[in-house]
Amino acid sequence: MSRRARNQAYIDEQFDLFLPFVSDLALRDQRETMERPFFSLAKNKRLKPIDYTSPDGKIHVYVSANPDYGMATIWDLDILIFMASMISDMRRRGINDIPQTLHFMPYDLLRVIGRPTTGRAYQLLGQALDRLQSTTVKTNIRANGRKEITFSWIDSYTHLVDERTERTRGMSVTLARWFYDGLMMEGGVLSIDRSYFDISGGRERWLYRVARKHAGGAGESGFRIALPTLFEKSGAEGSYRRFKFELLAIAKRDALPGYRLQIEASGAEPILRMIRRDAFPAPSSPRLRHSHTHAPTDDVCARLRVDFPGWDVDELHRQFEKWLAADTRRLPVDYDRAFYGFVRRHHEREHRSG
């Protein structure tokens, strides 16, 4: 067997191990990246570096962008979450010798992270991988201040294409050793809600990750942090005044999946408190009342009937409402998008089993 054939056989074996679990993949995020400023929170191209030092002076994070591609964004992080989830699933199933290089079908990655599977989506995926490979991170976050390590999020990636049919044979991504080691550490990952991918705003995505890390196990009292400190930890461009205005608006909407947001007055600057919704429920809150009267829009119903013909959309909506009611943390930020994803997963599951 040729080297190329052996490589392809190995890739196919990894696909066989993983693909049956794609639709039900438990999502995991790398704990150390969930609080510090590692990613751009804006969709426009960022070239200005992130230069963060913790208040005690012990932790440093410096992120620099490639001028051709720009800095990796918090939406590019979705790819790393997919990788973290793959590795966590392999560990759960007791697979030995978990590789640093992962093989997958781009279609499955896009499905898991809630992206469309159009030609444009594949193009954007390639651009995101370019940013992840070209963004440079220098930090001492794991070295207790003794030394710094420099890395890019991924060491390399390849897109395998059948020479005869020009159809994709999958992608291979080699993770940075720093990121891979973080995933393999005991307690190195945290579970996240699938609704995370429905969050559209960069600041909201970053704030969810901070809440998940700090408020996830904090009980009824939650986690408190001053807005100026939060601003420094975000690495966001622009002024603190603008950041404060946007964070107050986010807290007022109180729409993060799984976590309540409360603003508290304290001295010159406000404090943000994050509380797990199931740890301290507030039935009077409109965000916590399960909306049995909430229905998908006519537009999304029409789209569902075109994209997934043959299904009773009304019946699937009842199943969706029942699924939401079982856990308040499932309340979506974007109801239509969440319902569309629910129907899509139902269609794919039934189509595969058939």
UniProtKB/TrEMBL annotation:
It comes from the Bacteria. Pfam families: RPA. This is Plasmid replication initiator protein.
